[in-house]
Amino acid sequence: MSVLCVGALVRTSYDTGPYRITELHGPCTCAHVLAQINRMGEKLPASEPHFHLTCIWEGAKFPGSNHRYDPSYLNYYREDGTNVFSDDTLFFEGMAQGVTGDLFGVTA
Known about the structure:
Layout: E1 8-12, E2 19-28, H1 33-38, E3 50-57, E4 72-77, E5 90-95
Antiparallel strand pairs: 1-2, 1-5, 2-3, 3-4
């Protein structure tokens, strides 16, 4: 079973990753960021509950390079890895080495 939790390895349906989730924020019901910008000052309807993920790259590294691997952000995902505002999906690939995971679901 796929588990949205810190330490999970994920890829996206738009062919990015692999990433290791380092932080989870939520669940929240915030509106899409473009609605927040375009309708600034208006009270926006709540969205479906979702999470915002902070991730780090877990793919091949460039040996001897000073390439920076900055955090990546994946936003608006449900517990099952589907996105609230698009057809994007996360594909779970297990847990990062040394991480036991959470047998009881989402962890923040």
